[in-house]
């Protein structure tokens, strides 16, 4: 099964969208829609942590619908990474962890990057595109 990633969002711990990338050709989001979706996800994630009957709940990790799957990874400092992909996509956890590794290597180690601010790093963007294409090719060959 080929995995198709539609969108990637990175949200800072305050709930601000600091990075958005559209990889799909279906359902493209404009700037306002991407900001709304990031804000909504941050709020739902925070509310689910507070309402959970289980202590230590980290919030919603996955949301599955008929037309998409949304998978989230939250780093220890509170930055959230989530992808919107086609239904039935496999390997999204590993993909998100690889995206986080790229974030650490190209964004956090960049001396010109201010933490919690929008990400504008060409090497990060290029590496993300290569990772998504490589992941898509590997999953497509299975």
UniProtKB/TrEMBL annotation:
GO terms for biological process: endoplasmic reticulum to Golgi vesicle-mediated transport. It is found in: Endoplasmic reticulum; Golgi apparatus, cis-Golgi network; Golgi apparatus. The keyword Transport applies. GO terms for cellular component: endoplasmic reticulum; Golgi apparatus; TRAPP complex. Belongs to the TRAPP small subunits family. TRAPPC4 subfamily. Part of the multisubunit transport protein particle (TRAPP) complex. This is Trafficking protein particle complex subunit. It comes from Ceratopteris richardii.
């Amino acid at each position: 099964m080929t995995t198709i990633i539609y969108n990637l969002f990175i949200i800072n711990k305050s709930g601000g969208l600091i990075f958005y990338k559209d990889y799909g050709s279906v359902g493209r989001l404009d700037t306002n829609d991407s900001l709304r979706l990031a804000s909504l996800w941050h709020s739902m994630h925070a509310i689910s942590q507070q309402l959970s009957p289980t202590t230590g709940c980290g919030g919603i990790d996955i949301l599955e619908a008929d037309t998409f799957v949304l998978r989230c990874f939250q780093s220890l400092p509170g930055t959230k990474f989530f992808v919107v992909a086609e239904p039935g996509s496999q390997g999204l956890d590993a993909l998100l962890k690889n995206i986080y590794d790229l974030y650490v290597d190209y964004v956090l180690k960049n001396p010109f990057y201010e933490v919690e601010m929008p990400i504008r790093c060409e090497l990060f963007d290029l590496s993300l595109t290569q990772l998504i294409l490589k992941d898509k090719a590997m999953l497509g060959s299975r």
